[in-house]
Amino acid sequence: MNMSDSERVRTIIETQTGYQWTDHEEEANLVGILACSVRQKAIDKVYSRITRWNKWKSRRNLITFISGCILPADMEKFLKLFDIVFRMSELEKLPEMIRHYGVVTPASLFGDLKRMPSNDSIDEFWRITPHYSSDFEAFVPIQNGCDKFCTFCAVPYTRGREVSRPSGEIIHEVQQLVEQGYKSITLLGQNVNSYGLDKKGEELSFPQLLEAVGRMGEDLGHEFWVYFTSPHPRDMTDEVVEVVARYRCLARQFHLPVQSGDDKVLIHMNRKHTVEKYRQIIHSIHRMIPDATIFTDIITGFSGETEEQHENTRHMMEEFKYNMAYIAQYSPRPGAASSRWADDIAPDIKRRRYHELSNDLRKHALVHNTNMVGKSYRVLVTGHDRKPGFLSALTEGKIVCRFAATEETLIGKFTDIVITSATDFSVEGERVAVAVLSEGH
Q1: Beta bridge partners of 186
Q2: Phi, psi of 204 (to 5 degrees)
Q3: Which helix (H) or strand (E) holds 225?
Q4: What CATH class has 376-432?
């Protein structure tokens, strides 16, 4: 989401202030961060970066700014460190702030720091044409905010309540991207499958939105993949899976955060779904789209998590055999409900549990990737691989693939690869001139 936001920030800066982009921050006269308060580690990186930038000010003119998903407590601290602090919904005021740089932005510009953020200006923000950072991959926001209030999460306090973007704008942006040759498009939201619930009777539901995108893809006849992230198990329905199965442009990849494999922990997290509800969703995906890959998010070391509850999460990983899991060690976020509870899992226990889950993930991902060997897959070439003489690509299921090639013209295009070897998180293959796809791919 912050990557998508940054594309609109760049549009405003370049079109309304006269600044030009540089790839080297040492050359810049205007530098900024779109931060994320969801994890303390990310905020720690902000302090490290602004400390360095403020030292540079003794040698040259430099304006610093910060925005993004920032908790009120962090926002107050940043007021003393950055020249400009603003909420993303106030982006259109940024050029005026830059013209008055040197004075810390007063709180009145973005309201009381302690109140819930407002989405009053989000429609204007969505109408800003983004400066896409890639010419073949794009992010399209469909929703902002969250109404779930998971006890560990800062998003409702940084993004506000759920607001759905008008479907007509979404479909128009996707169609423009496809017609311009984009190959990978991701629909973005904090809870994409609750899209439209804030405008019942006035707006499409999420399955209907996917259906509209799928039909558009068939009508246009271009080859492209559409992803969405991230859905919440509470609102995930078989209808969503059925629509994905029906349209070829809707990618066979699901990112479905589970957070824990223990029902009591899920209640403590206020997730409002059970392991059994989650299991039913996974079974529906496997039944209707057998070749789909499944990614997830997991928090380990949550407040009060016992060894038995941790083992239940490991059992869940054994059952569902994720292709990828983004595993985080729990850190309390100011304002979130769990910040009032004891962070009572010792750091060394969190690290041990993290490594156990990571090793489980590697084991299951390796089995899947090894089963890919000898089969042909359609891949989207994304750039140069770290291995000299190789290009890197992604399968439709977002499995990283490398193959021997040096032609720059292949980047941003589809090609077909026969997989020859596998590791836990990637595969290697050889390019074939004509696709001979195995059953199910």
Answers
A1: 139, 227
A2: -65, 155
A3: strand 225-229
A4: mainly beta
293-300 β-sheet, strand order: 253-255, 293-300, 324-329
For residue 388, what are the CA distances in angstroms to 129, 400, 416? 37, 16, 20
Q: Report pLDDT digits (tens) over 190-242.
A: 899 999 999 988 999 999 999 999 999 999 999 999 999 989 999 999 999 99
Q: Where would I find the H helices in 58-118? A: 72-78, 94-99
Residues with Cβ within 8 Å of residue 208, at least 6 apart in sequence: 196
Fill in the amino acid letter for 303. Answer: S
- The residue whose two tokens read 């020249």 is 83
Please state the pTM of the whole predicted model. Answer: 0.86
Pick from 359, 367, 279, 304: nearest CA to 327 = 359
pLDDT digits (tens, 9 = 90+) for 244-302: 999 999 999 999 999 999 999 999 999 999 999 999 999 999 999 999 999 999 999 99
CATH of the domain spanning 134-239, picked from 3.30.980.10, 3.40.1000.10, 3.40.109.10, 3.30.750.210? 3.30.750.210
Q: What is the CATH T-level fold of the domain 252-370, as seen in this structure?
A: Transcription Regulator spoIIAA (3.30.750)
| Ramachandran class of 171: left when φ > 0, alpha when ψ lies in -120 to 50, beta otherwise | alpha
Tokens 């204007």, located at residue: 124
Per residue in 366-397, is it b (16+ CB within 10 Å) or e — as a string? eebbeebeebbbbbbbbebbeeeebbbbbbbb
Answer yes or no: are the C-beta atoms of 400 and 424 closer than 8 Å: no
The helix-helix angle for 275-288 and 238-246 (nearest 10°) equals: 20
Give every CB contact of residue 368 below 8 A, 6+ residues apart in sequence. 293, 321, 323
Residue 48, Cβ density class (10 Å: 0-12 exposed, 13-18 middle, ≥19 buried)? exposed
Do the beta carbons of residue 409 and residue 402 sit within 8 Å?
A: no
Residue 386's alpha-carbon distances to 64, 122, 124, 404, 422, in angstroms, are 33, 39, 40, 12, 16
Containing 163, the helix (H) or strand (E) segment is strand 163-164
Every domain of the chain and the residues it spans: 2-109, 134-239, 252-370, 376-432
